[in-house]
């Protein structure tokens, strides 16, 4: 989880990473936010892959 949140913060910035994770609903996560998907038992690596795809995270940051 630590690596996941480090990557989220690196990509979105410390002020927006949690806001994005709390507010952005993604169909690829079953209509959930990042927080909801993690709480539902999704693996952090799978959630990060979805975030990367949906938000076009550059390969070097994945």
Care to describe what's here?
By secondary structure, the chain is mainly alpha-helical. Helix content is 56%, strand content 0%. The protein is built from four helices and no strands. The mean pLDDT is 96. It comes from Streptomyces thinghirensis.
What tags apply to this protein structure?
single chain; mainly alpha; DUF3046 domain-containing protein; 62 residues
Topology at a glance:
Layout: H1 2-12, H2 17-23, H3 34-39, H4 44-54
The 3D shape can be described as globular
- The secondary structure category is mainly alpha
Strand content: under 5%
> How far apart lie the N and C ends?
15 Å
Most strands sheet: none
Protein name: DUF3046 domain-containing protein
Pfam families: DUF3046 (PF11248)
Organism: Streptomyces thinghirensis
InterPro entries: DUF3046
